[in-house]
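Late entry, written up from scratch paper. The run itself happened at the end of the previous shift, but nothing got recorded in the book at the time, so transcribing now.
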Amino acid sequence: MSEKVDRIYLDGECRKKIEDTKIRNEAKWLDLYLLAMSLGFKEGVRIPSKNKSHISMNYFKPEEIALIYTVAIADCKKNKDIDEKSIFNIISNEKEVYKISEEYANGGIQLLLEEVDVSTSFKKIRLLYEKMIQDELKNLNLI
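Output as recorded:
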């Protein structure tokens, strides 16, 4: 059994770049982390952390942790060479699960910084992203 994770990390440079934007001024780090992780996963952009800056796991609700695990499982399933036992081993290792989510969050923050005007509100970004997800679900005939 792996040791309990009490914090999750973002790359210090990514965090520093977004710190002074309107996006950050309107959003909690937790919300920004989850949005960035989802965006990074959707676009397939993973960036390992170099200089780590943490967010306490105390802020995460069970459904948010479930989203992190869902991303880790989906990431494993994208790799056709990974068998079910390997997927189980990865999701049984809490540190590995969070490392996957951290890399996608770093990638998502990078994408946000490249694609969105830093004066854009977090609420507007979230609404645009929710619409994009709804459109994709419609395309898949899931809604």
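DSSP finds seven helices and two strands in the chain.
(Scratch paper discarded after transcription.)
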